[in-house]
Amino acid sequence: MRIFSTKYLRVxxxxxxxxxxxxxxxxxxxxxxxxxxxxxxxxxxxYYYDSHLLLCFLKVTNNFGMTAVADLEFPLxxxxxxxxxxxxxxxxxxxxxxxxxxxxSGRHYARLYDGDYQKAVEHIKKVAGEFSDDQVIMCxxxxxxxxxxxxxxxxxxxxxxxxxxxxxxxxMMRVFWRNGFQIHVHTxxxxxxxxxxxxxxxxxxxxxxxxxxxxxxxxxxxxxxxxNRIAKLGxxxxxxxxxxxTLAERYSEKGLGTKRAHTIVPVKWLFDRGVTTAFHSDFxxxxxxxxxxxxxxxxxxxx
Length: 303
What we know:
The chain is α/β, with parallel strands linked by helices. It has a single domain (51-300), classed as TIM Barrel. Helix content is 44%, strand content 14%. It has helices at residues 6-17, 25-28, 46-49, 51-64, 79-90, 106-112, 117-131, 166-178, 190-206, 224-233, 242-253, 258-261, 267-272, 297-300; strands spanning 68-74, 99-105, 136-146, 182-187, 215-218, 236-239, 277-279. Strands 1-2-3-4-5-6-7 form a seven-stranded parallel sheet. Helix 9 links the parallel strand 4 and strand 5. Helix 8 runs parallel beside helix 9 (190-206). It is globular. The two termini are 27 Å apart. The model is unreliable at 1-48 (pLDDT under 50).
């Protein structure tokens, strides 16, 4: 959840569920500066911090008729706090009519264990076993990393510093790779994609895995040559097609230029190469992707 969405989220959620509790957002948001002061990114963890806001999210999701959601950065800020709120609300079957799948945050556990990813592996497996039930499932063998920043704020890394420096991302991925994890990597720009593909290629040469299922999350801008490498290296893609629908015109004027903006999230290149590709809404950022409860919009956008 990023700063870009704060004002828009307030308006949209109030419209959807007729609530006023979002006035708490400004005072109750938890902020965290990342990247050690370089290109600082601010993260808002208001859902888990405030029970009222988590209930707002729950009501919207229930109203949309969704049967499952995924949290691809768990925990975002504080493990104990998020587990407590999840146990209180998301595991209550009288309130919650959908399943939640959680993928561990590589960044969070790197900080927790001062960069010792092997300890992070053991911790994730332990927490997943203790925390999971049939309503909320923390995957014991999945982890999430970052190649770059958000597409909406144009913090994706285009070829011209990342949220996780390449050397740190490679260090993280190597440990989880050797422990058999499926690795998810937030990747939006073609420079970020190059970083990821180079690391996967190196890991494949060091410790070959036939079905590693490393997953590109978002895939905001990918070159055709990179689509070839994605297929060759056996990566999966979970794309955010709403980027093209809402940003192509604006980014053609400022940021990417016409040629690159017209190939935002180029899913046809992926389909043509047999890359297993799924879509997601990026719900907390792209709320119009599910406007008026049209939960199939993310499948319509790329068509």
